[in-house]
Write a structure and sequence with these properties.
Leucine-rich repeat, LRR (right-handed beta-alpha superhelix), ten-stranded parallel β-sheet, 6% helix
Length: 246
């Protein structure tokens, strides 16, 4: 058993998990990133003290159900795989605080994610998401949501009903118009760059915006037009002076 209760087998080109790792029943952290894994042994269920499991950068087409038996998991890394869905058994991970599912093949956010009641951070960027489920508002502990690089054509309406959100990232989508976010009292940062938007989202004082016109008012064209009128159209004309007499 490692003294620090951590096993890191990242980047070993593993095709299967060595079974002796499952004998370390007090293990807290297991890193299996950047391998060639596409399944896990049922013996993994013995690691009931595991809190962090990293399976990112592998070849999983489906999440092994044995992962859903690890009920003490707080952080689960599943990014950069080939996942098209998540199993309903994921709801058993009621201690999960952080879920990384970025860079997969998800066309919609699995509704089972909305049952992870203690979830605080959700990384779902670089998928093919077009909408978010209305049930997402049930995640009242959620503070940060990362949706960069998806196929959102409008700002997800459900996020407007989540006043506890602190960070919203919708960078690199296809959003053309942003509603006002000024009513979200917990919001601290909104990232909306690289969208074909016609406006910047209105936010409350002190909220940082990252994107086009982030330092301007939400209607930059109207503001610029007003400035032009004030400067050049309504400025007082200089008094005409009589020609000098010589």
């Amino acid at each position: 058993m490692p003294v620090d209760k951590t096993v890191d087998l990242s980047g070993r080109q593993l095709r299967w998990l060595p079974l002796h790792v499952c004998s370390f029943r007090e293990l807290v952290k297991l890193y299996l990133s950047d391998n060639n894994l596409n399944h896990l042994p049922p013996e993994l269920e013995q690691l009931q003290n595991l809190q962090i499991l990293a399976l990112d950068f592998n070849n999983f087409k489906a999440l092994p159900l044995v992962v859903c038996t690890l009920k003490q998991l707080c952080i689960l890394y599943l990014g950069n795989n080939k996942l098209c869905s998540l199993p309903l058994e994921l709801r058993l991970l009621q201690n999960l605080r952080t879920l990384w599912i970025e860079s997969n093949c998800l066309q919609c956010l699995p509704e089972v994610v909305c049952e992870l009641s203690l979830l605080k951070t959700l990384h779902a960027g670089s998928n093919a998401l077009r909408v978010l489920p209305a049930q997402l508002r049930c995640l009242q502990e959620l503070r940060t949501i990362w949706l960069s690089g998806n196929l959102l054509s409008e700002f997800p309406p459900v996020l407007l009903d989540m006043p506890f959100l602190e960070v919203i990232d919708v960078d690199r989508n296809s959003i053309r118009f942003f509603p006002s976010l000024a009513h979200l009292p917990g919001l601290k940062l909104v990232i909306y760059d690289h969208n074909p938007c016609r406006n910047a989202p209105k936010v409350a004082k002190g909220v940082r915006r990252v994107g086009r016109w982030s330092e301007e008012t939400p209607e930059p064209r109207e503001r610029n037009t007003l400035l032009y009128r004030n400067r050049f159209c309504t400025a007082p004309r200089p008094l005409s002076l009589p020609p000098p007499r010589w």
